[in-house]
Q: What sequence folds into this?
């Protein structure tokens, strides 16, 4: 199957930019759409520096109904969308839920309506392990398989869940309506992937591309990176009395390059196999405790990083680890990067880009890429 | 507590119009907003003929962001909304899910945003027993209590579920944000009722007000009414091999006047008790089989109505009956009308208004009201 054109909505963000890179490297033409609310178009320059290919950029607001129409009209060769454009801070979603419903839910309704109008028939959706909620209520389902009943416990997760049902309902309707009209070929064209991630980690091994969060980061590794650079005094460890081997909570950290590869493989699978709507977990299946992460990142940095134990946070659970057997079996996807590599890549990115994308990377890193 | 002004969104529809009547009779000022897509403003004239009071009418599109703002700006005395404005055909929702996500989900996001902007702090939402999905998966939860895990099985139900989470998240956020700001009084003002109905039935005993569905009705009693008037040859009974005493499926039919009273009581409860968000089932707790309904409506009509048994429909379940103890205990709500009365009222309405609201009711019915 020949590679077509792909719209990556939210393509300048962390996972979006690495997926854009993976798509370009695989030969896809890519149009990136983003509102640049929490990201920088500079990511696209870094992508070009790495792979020598350029994604087209369109600034776009997902809550503006006409914006997607304009993109699809200008690019009739787009047949697929990878949809990252969303707000993603769990804590903020509790304070400003309507922003999350507007951008995440209504934004996706807009996208789907425009896709239907323009016959853009494949969608890969950036969902989240958050849709499982407190998966520890099903003790025989750890690591979590896709069959685990969903039950998000915060507004962010509720919006991801609502979008999963919207995509499922729309793809199913497009298929059923086509079948009723006797058009099996049309039915097969409509496909959706719901990708549920665990904890994305790491950066590009070149050191010129990584996560560039605005404001206070809310994930363990970016916080550790700030401790390493001195922006933050110490890491707070929330709870050391969990039932893990060292008392700290277990999460499933996945290298961003492996995660991006999962998106590419999901898109290829949709286009080649026409499965309709299907959910896949993207994780390593291997859990790491907070203390193990501190040790791993300290090793990459070359010195012990300070931390302090604080009480557990409400809503945190012992273990969130993916059963990713379905992705391995069906998509042929297996994460190949280690946690150590994620830590080394993150540290290379962090120490060389103290201002993130707001300053040019060191010339020697760019020079290495050209070899 | 003095009665304030209430916006009834979708107030010319079946349940909306009867709730408007109940509110006016209870002394509330009512503004009805509707797009008249599947209803008639004539309902408001009938309401006035019955209770001598008039609701103000505004034509409005819930998907138009500015429309709610205009209503709240024109009526600063509105402090509560009862929200019925939605598409409601389960079958159609499978064919046109995006219409359902736009009107039901995005429409409610618009409403909530406008409520927050204008400090309109109480919402009573017209949800549905559909949010429980196939409740027979929890055999010890029949009749269904509000604690039953939710799991809708069609796009209509998915949109009702998404709206329940949106209302819950927004009310909780308004409360938590106010508490963080030290304003307990402001926090208590934000309240939401999620009303999950079972099968609304019947009409006003005056015979001048009832359900006026456009197109093919999809509920048992309106279909039986069409058989009685000769518009339809016979009723199709889908499945007579269920595990009920006569083999047909069991549903919980609730008189529309009782249902409307439940909305009034829920609104009063929100205003008096400030519970935050709370779900209540509105049903009788008593199940009736399809055969029992045919007999009851045949008795009201005075002759046996023809029916034919067909295979079960996919997705139908044996028993959907409400456990409405919570509404009885907390709202002081107890349905008082019998199934026989619902059938008699429906037949009086049907035979006297063969064109629904598109023709004036018989003068003798209006004359009776004036006594």
A:
């Amino acid at each position: 199957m020949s590679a077509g054109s792909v719209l990556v909505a939210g393509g300048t963000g962390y996972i979006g930019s690495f997926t854009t890179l993976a798509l370009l490297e695989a030969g896809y033409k890519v149009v990136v759409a983003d509102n640049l609310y929490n990201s920088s178009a500079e990511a696209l320059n870094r992508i070009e520096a790495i792979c020598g290919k350029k994604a087209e950029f369109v600034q776009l607001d997902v809550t503006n109904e006409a914006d997607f129409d304009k993109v699809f009209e200008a690019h009739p060769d787009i047949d697929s969308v990878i949809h990252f454009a969303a707000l993603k801070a769990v804590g903020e979603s509790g304070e400003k839920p309507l922003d999350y419903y507007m951008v995440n839910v209504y934004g996706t309704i807009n996208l789907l309506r425009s896709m239907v109008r323009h016959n853009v028939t494949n969608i890969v959706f950036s969902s989240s392990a958050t849709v499982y909620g407190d998966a520890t209520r099903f003790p025989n389902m750890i690591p979590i398989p896709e069959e685990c009943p969903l039950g998000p416990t915060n507004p962010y997760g509720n919006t991801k869940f609502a979008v999963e049902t919207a995509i499922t309902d729309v793809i199913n309707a497009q298929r059923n309506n086509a079948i009723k009209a006797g058009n099996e070929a049309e039915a097969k064209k409509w496909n959706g992937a719901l990708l549920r991630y665990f904890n994305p980690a790491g950066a590009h091994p070149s050191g010129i591309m990584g996560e560039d969060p605005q404001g206070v980061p809310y994930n363990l590794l970016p916080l550790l990176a700030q401790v390493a650079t001195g922006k933050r005094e110490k890491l707070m460890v929330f709870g050391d009395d969990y039932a893990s081997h060292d008392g700290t909570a277990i999460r499933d950290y996945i290298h961003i390059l492996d995660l991006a590869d999962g998106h590419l493989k999901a898109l290829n699978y949709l286009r080649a196999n026409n499965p309709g709507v299907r959910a896949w977990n993207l994780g390593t299946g291997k859990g790491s405790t907070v203390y193990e992460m501190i040790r791993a990142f300290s090793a990459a940095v070359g010195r012990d990083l300070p931390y302090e134990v604080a009480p557990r946070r409400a809503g945190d659970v012992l273990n969130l680890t993916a059963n990713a057997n379905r992705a391995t079996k069906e998509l042929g996807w297996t994460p190949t990067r280690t946690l150590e590599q994620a830590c080394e890549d993150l540290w290379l990115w962090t120490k060389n880009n103290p201002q993130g994308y707001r300053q040019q990377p060191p010339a020697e890193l760019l020079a290495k890429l050209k070899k």
About this structure: The first strand of chain B starts at residue 5 and ends at 9.
